[in-house]
Amino acid sequence: MIKFIIKTILQFVLILLCVSFISFLLVYLAPGDPAESILNAQGIPFTKELLEIKRAEMGLNGSFMEQYLAWLVRIVHGDFGVTYNSGASVWEQLVFYFPNTVYLAFYTLLATLGISLPTALYTSYHAGKPVDRFLMAGLAFLNAIPSFVMGIILILIFSVQLHWLPIQATANELGLVLPVITLAMIMSTRYIPQLRTALIEVLHSPEVEGARGRGIREGHILLHDVIYNVLPFLLTLVSLSLGSLLGGVAIIEHLFSWPGIGKMLIGVVAKRDYPLIQGAVLFITAGVLTVNLVFQLLTVWLNPRVRLAQENPKLLPRMKRLKTSKEVSYG
């Protein structure tokens, strides 16, 4: 277990380094001169000499590797720099916006589980029946709708027509309802079929059939056998979905004016605020990796077979295929 944790943390650091290098390289290769952009934004008429002074002040005169290593050293020491446009601390900006995205992701995940688990349980117990086929067809239809289209539809219904909810999420706490419902509906269309498949497999497993044969109540079987066996798979699904939520809700945040890191990124990319872009990419990557690390540890802890495989990889070929190894899609 300790070896697994150390290995995972080393992978964590390696991925962060790779992401930081790629993001810095893309910014370095981007057209335009950041120093010139800042002087133009400040309305300062500049000469070639003033431009060189500004470039030296920003550390842009060195080679790519010199600039990257200098930036990386500052990051390691907790110095993310300042934004080009406002001069504000990049760290303070990230700390302000990122928790809002986490807040949105958390409630979206709760809503998704609240919709998906009961529906998946119901369809798994009625697999193949007309109600199951009807629900699966409806989910396939909803899954084809892009998230921003779903958001616009909900805005038209609940904000424009019924006036029940505000359009902008910054208006009040009720404003969080629409973006959460939008994301939860889209994610549920992907959760339910996968959970349904996993539940059907568990419901027809020898373990559950044996419990029924011994006369154990269905409610007890559901809680102690079915849910427990599906839990590692659900954790894998949640970890992937939460990771995608932290880094992939920019469109919804922008649509509903939710002050998250995704909406912030859309604005700063247009302004070419490179320190903030680099910091945000690194911040999001670290958040996604942290979530995956936590859920990996939970999966290993909950599933003895996975834990045994991590402690003794030579036993892995002898084991049956783990339920948690199924392919799952992002939410």
From TrEMBL:
<keyword id="KW-0472">Membrane</keyword>
<dbReference type="GO" id="GO:0005886">
    <property type="term" value="C:plasma membrane"/>
</dbReference>
<dbReference type="Pfam" id="PF00528">
    <property type="entry name" value="BPD_transp_1"/>
</dbReference>
<keyword id="KW-0813">Transport</keyword>
<comment type="similarity">
    <text>Belongs to the binding-protein-dependent transport system permease family.</text>
</comment>
<keyword id="KW-1003">Cell membrane</keyword>
<dbReference type="InterPro" id="IPR045621">
    <property type="entry name" value="BPD_transp_1_N"/>
</dbReference>
<feature type="transmembrane region" description="Helical">
    <location>
        <begin position="102"/>
        <end position="122"/>
    </location>
</feature>
<dbReference type="GO" id="GO:0055085">
    <property type="term" value="P:transmembrane transport"/>
</dbReference>
<keyword id="KW-0812">Transmembrane</keyword>
<feature type="transmembrane region" description="Helical">
    <location>
        <begin position="226"/>
        <end position="256"/>
    </location>
</feature>
<feature type="transmembrane region" description="Helical">
    <location>
        <begin position="12"/>
        <end position="30"/>
    </location>
</feature>
<dbReference type="InterPro" id="IPR000515">
    <property type="entry name" value="MetI-like"/>
</dbReference>
<dbReference type="Pfam" id="PF19300">
    <property type="entry name" value="BPD_transp_1_N"/>
</dbReference>
<dbReference type="InterPro" id="IPR035906">
    <property type="entry name" value="MetI-like_sf"/>
</dbReference>
<feature type="transmembrane region" description="Helical">
    <location>
        <begin position="276"/>
        <end position="302"/>
    </location>
</feature>
<feature type="transmembrane region" description="Helical">
    <location>
        <begin position="164"/>
        <end position="186"/>
    </location>
</feature>
<keyword id="KW-1133">Transmembrane helix</keyword>
<protein>
    <submittedName>
        <fullName>ABC transporter permease</fullName>
    </submittedName>
</protein>
<feature type="domain" description="ABC transmembrane type-1">
    <location>
        <begin position="98"/>
        <end position="295"/>
    </location>
</feature>
<feature type="transmembrane region" description="Helical">
    <location>
        <begin position="134"/>
        <end position="158"/>
    </location>
</feature>
